[in-house]
Amino acid sequence: MLRYTLLRIVGAIPTLLLVIVLAFLMVHAAPGGPFDDERALPPEIEANIAAAYHLDEPLPKQLLRYMGGLLQGDLGPSYRYRDYSVNELIGVGFPYSLRIGASAMALALLVGVGAGTIAALRQGTLLDRVVMGFSMIGISIPVLVVAPVLVLLLAVKLHWLPAGWSETGGLRHYLLPVITLALPQIAYIARLTRASMIDVLSRDFIRTAYAQGLGTATVVRVHALKPAMLPVLSYMGPAIAAILTGSVVVEEIFGIPGLGQFFIGGALNRDYTLVLGIVVFYATLIIALNLLVDILYGVIDPRVRYR
Amino acid sequence: MSGNRTIKVTGTLLLLITVMALVGPWINPNDYMTMDLDRILRSPSAAGMHWFGTDGLGRDLFVRTMHGIRVTMLVAIVASLVSLVIGVAYGAIAGFVGGRVDAVMMRLVDTLYALPFIFFVILLMVAFERNFLLIFVAIGAINWLDMARIVRGQTLSLREREFVEAARLTGVSAARIIFRHIAPNLMGIVIVYVTLTIPQAILVESFLSFLGLGVQEPQTSLGALVDAGVNQMERAAFTLLIPATLLAAILMCFNFLGDGLRDYFDARHSQ
Amino acid sequence: MSLLDVTGLTIRYGDDTVVAGVDLYVERGESVGLVGESGSGKSQSALAILGLLPKNARVEGSIEFDGQQILGESEESLNTIRARRIGMVFQDPMQALNPYLRIGAQLEQIILSHGLAERDEARRRATEMLAKVGLPDPERQSRAYPHQLSGGMRQRVMLASALIAEPDLLIADEPTTALDVTVQAQILDLLEDIRDNTALLLITHDLGVVAGYCEHMIVLERGRVVDAGPTTSLFAAPGHAHTRTLIAAAPRVDRGGAPAPVSASTILSVGDAAVDYDELHAVIDVSFAVRKGETVAVVGESGSGKSSLVRAVLGLVPMAAGRVVYSGETLDGPVETRSLGGRRDLQLVFQDPVSALNPQMRVQTIVEESLLVHEPALGAAERRASVVAMLEKVGLEEKFLRRFPHELSGGQAQRVAIARALILDPKILICDEAVAALDGTVRAQVLDLLRGVQQESGLSIIFISHDLAVVRSISHRVLVMYMGRLVEAADNERLFARPAHPYTQALIKSVPVPDPVVAPGRAPLLGEVPSLLNPPSGCVFHPRCPRADAACSDTTPALRDLGGTRVACHHPGD
Lengths: 307, 271, 574
Description:
heterotrimer, A: mainly alpha, MetI-like fold, 0% strand, B: mainly alpha, elongated
């Protein structure tokens, strides 16, 4: 198990390096510098700015400097928010994103796995078809449609929940963003769980368990749940990525000052260091979480562990 | 709903939407870019032939929506074709050659898988000034990974199948083995995954357009229309609801179609 | 009152009746064999007894267990009978045990679910049961996962799980079909030893198993009971034509044998062949020759290297060392690099006809494909004519030309595969377990077909099989392989009548004879085939060999000629 874990950790390093280099090169391949659209600056000042941000150095040297900073956990200064470092900006935005993202993920797992399991056990019944119908709709309707429509319905028309964002609004303000963000994941996880549970329940060892006189609840709990969760576990990586993506939209619509807002703002304002920093930060997060998922997979499936 | 009926119903709906998007602007006298500040946010009506009403700049929403569908579908189909070509070629080569080549090629796919692609696409869009063509390429570049994995897995298992060994033994050429023995057995799964790639591509496109990083005014797409609708929804809900409904309907049709096709091929395979 | 009394059992799926009015009963303590070919409804009937059929099955009739009607009972009340009163063993323990759960936990759960004991006591009983079924070091092994055990050990665990709640009846559905023959003998012994007073309903296709281990037998054909009675009297005087056919089709390892070879000219010779898969040595230094018109059988258990050997000869897998000479021409390298003539003359028939035929091609395309390569001058009509002639030869009518593989039965599909191999008029046909997936009666027909073709055209056949009874009935010469090595090679008659290698002797003794008069002996071999990744020192057979001494674990015996047989053993003999 230790060997397996170490192998996974070592395997993740090249991915991380690739991400950093790729993102760095992409940003620096962009035509036009970050300060182009400001009033024409005298060449000396421009040169000064360039020197201050080390933009006058050759690209490989810049890359090495950047990586050196990363090793110390430093993502560099922001081009736009002149007085802030990228680290500070992430520190401001990420807690919001983390709160809605993690809540959405927890909600999605809870509801998705539950609904999927029930649908699998009631396969072919009306309940099954209703759950599956709703989840297909949930998968098909993107966050950018769900979010405004829910705001329109629940906030603007019915006034049940607040539409906008308020720093002091409390839990009620989180409700709509989290549900919006979770819905497609609930749908997907429900379908995945159902399909996987049906597959596991049709396996021979489940028939053996029934032949041993175990009740349905025991069969599902002791024999079926673990293997049925493997595909869901595998989906956690893409799900995390999808929730990060979705949170960009949700933050935009609900006006939450999260990391997504900084990212889009940075992208539209050509704040390259900020955008680069957030990409590197998110990539590291995703890779780390994927690693965790891989290790968990090994814990659940003994055949993977000993390979 | 049985697989076959799903295919027929969703296929017909998609065909209708496509035909409407192609023919609509042609039978409606309005055009998609003429602004008229005297007719801002008019509700849908037959008057002035504004069947879907008008937007915040007084442009006809019906014609704009039809244009949006065209752009959305075009982006999605081209992106899917890009991912189809890259994915099938990559997966088939890895699966057919096998061995070390396969290991290296799949290691690369695994690595790419772990990347937060959408953020890279945004980086690309920023760096390259929202080049419309780039959207196709970017979206295609995301989606080929799944296709490559699936095709590679299938090819690998087909290559080991005994009917391929039998063909090798009798002296059948490699080309004939690929085109007569392996390709026909890949067809079903490739069709299913192309169908499921299209809605994913639509999602990415609408996401980018919604954030203002996709198609640029006066051009439009369903995602851009939803974005505009969000800004007007408190005054004119239809500007949001019409493009949102159409976007959801198209996505749902493709997803159901893909599911139906999978059931169909599964059933045919297990006969 | 019988322990189990089933009357008029009928099982339908939609309009499809798979079991039609089956009557069967099992008395306390007795063993009953339920015999039939695939599709006879034997497994369906067994599953119906425990209420384990899929939900869409409609079941009618009566199932009385210990005087109580259990057909149509609720799950709750069936759960008091399952395991506690009736235990069940399934065919493939790899599939039938939960791969995600330690085996000890799987056993404990049964005790806990039936409320027979608390957790500590349950654990103790599970370990005790594992010891009883012969798991070495049960304390430690109870923490193992199924995939960490060998096939035989897994089936022992399966048996432990069926018996742990001390049921009155044990239903065993093909319990040894997935196992090697020497391991099968061990499991059948164990079943006999352990069951005490537990009645046994044994479902099997193997008449040898029934003859050796069941007091009564019931013969099913297409969902109906055609014959039932004491095993000895049914074998002596079958009441129904189908029973007679089954018995006639079951080959016997203790008698028969093919006539001597017809020709002395060698057509294929293989010298010092070796096959490696990375660090695993699958075949080591195997040499043999095939003469014109003869059938050479290669026998061995799983991991013996028999399939790898012929695949290397054909160039489907690379040969690490050795040479293949066919009619004076050296064949080496992968099949793609060999001359068309050489490839044409060596053809292969696979075990599983379903995966050997391209599901997207029609029978005609499948059979004629190689003609496009080897006879490019033929027109479409001529090709069609030769396909029709070939199909007729293998016993298929012209109407099969347009069929797809999924429209064929197993036997028909295997005939098509044989037709594809024979259409090039090869000189050597290699059959890799070619009849292993077929029912007994169909297997007999296909074997007849092969004999017929051989007599007609002087074809040589290399016949790879794990089934010694079949090998005895079809081959002229036999090669016995163990862990990649050739351990004995002799003429059919000599090998079966006077085997010299202790492994050959054990192999032959392990095969159940379909005749109740021949009492089955105890399993002649202990243990199972070791891992090829970590082979024993010296003679690889020594850890299981009754004659092994210090020399055996020290030096590898070379193949020696012993007059009529070649043996690799330090202590050969009768």
